[in-house]
Design the sequence.
């Protein structure tokens, strides 16, 4: 008699209360998985820590280095001191203040150009992969053309025609020249997903193409989209700094690339002011490294073949 009541509760109604938590978990699984992936990957943690430092610098530069970065208020050509941790420029500007304030423009260029490049890559790559026939052929042809054209000479030519246009012009140039590689990757991923059961079921339910792309395809490509954004951001950081260094931008803006431009024009290394050139160069390298470290981590997430061998070895030994 005691066995019947013990077996009755599990068979009562387990499905009804379990359905809602499952949907809730599915709704928040993507950001949750990405967060756990970052926390469990040392490369990603190092990159996230560096990026957080630069974000703080960009958000509150006035609290870290009060004053105007372009103000010529100090004795020119001073070395590092307590009052001026990185010294002063040949014009009497504080290099530390310029370095802190320059993080904002460099980070804005990286994030905005990375986001716009990723959006354009997703629009063209996903459309080409999911819509067969003429649409795929035309979009793939456009992508191939931009892949064949050498990127940096094209960037230089476009930037030279729009010289002095400021950060908006540089961002536009970077987006136009930086979307094609990501579009090719996304198209290949969509081609591998196009005949999966969940997409066939969505078509049979009569869902519209746009809804299938937004609700079914893109959530399954989140890690690849994030990796694409991070790679585009690295490209934007380095290319924008190169353009500003050679003077193909507004040289009066406060950014690390313009710091390098003025340091080179005033022969900072020969004048005994190495920190004028070293500080922005190091900032560009570290910011690019932060995005690159995060990118390596998300490459491992999206591609199981790139994950550390130690995890597979531990499972095989157990």
Sequence:
């Amino acid at each position: 008699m005691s066995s019947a009541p013990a077996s009755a509760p599990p068979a009562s109604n387990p499905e009804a209360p379990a359905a809602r938590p499952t949907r809730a978990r599915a709704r928040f699984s993507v950001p949750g998985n990405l967060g756990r992936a970052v926390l469990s990957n040392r490369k990603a943690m190092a990159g996230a820590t560096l990026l957080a430092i630069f974000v703080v610098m960009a958000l509150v530069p006035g609290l870290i280095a009060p004053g105007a970065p372009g103000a010529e208020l100090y004795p020119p050509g001073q070395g590092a001191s307590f009052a001026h941790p990185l010294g002063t420029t040949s014009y009497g500007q504080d290099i530390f203040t310029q370095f802190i304030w320059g993080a904002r423009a460099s980070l804005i260029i990286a994030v905005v150009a990375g986001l716009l490049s990723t959006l354009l890559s997703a629009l063209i790559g996903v459309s080409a992969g999911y819509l067969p026939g003429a649409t795929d052929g035309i979009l793939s042809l456009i992508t191939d053309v931009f892949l064949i054209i050498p990127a940096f000479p094209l960037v230089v030519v476009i930037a030279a025609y729009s010289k002095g246009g400021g950060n908006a012009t540089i961002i536009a140039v970077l987006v136009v020249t930086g979307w094609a590689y990501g579009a090719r990757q996304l198209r290949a991923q969509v081609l591998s997903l196009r005949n999966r059961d969940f997409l066939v079921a969505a078509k049979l339910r009569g869902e519209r193409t746009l809804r299938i792309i937004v609700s079914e395809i893109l959530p399954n490509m989140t890690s690849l989209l994030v990796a694409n954004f991070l790679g585009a951001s690295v490209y934007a950081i380095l290319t924008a700094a190169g353009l500003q260094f050679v003077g193909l931008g507004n040289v009066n803006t406060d950014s690390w690339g313009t710091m390098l431009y003025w340091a080179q024009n005033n022969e900072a290394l020969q004048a005994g002011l190495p920190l004028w050139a070293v500080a922005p160069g190091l900032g560009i390298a570290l910011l690019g490294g932060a995005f690159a470290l995060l990118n390596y981590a998300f490459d491992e997430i999206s591609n199981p073949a790139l994950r550390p061998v130690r995890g597979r070895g531990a499972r095989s030994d157990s």
The two ends are 43 Å apart (CA to CA).
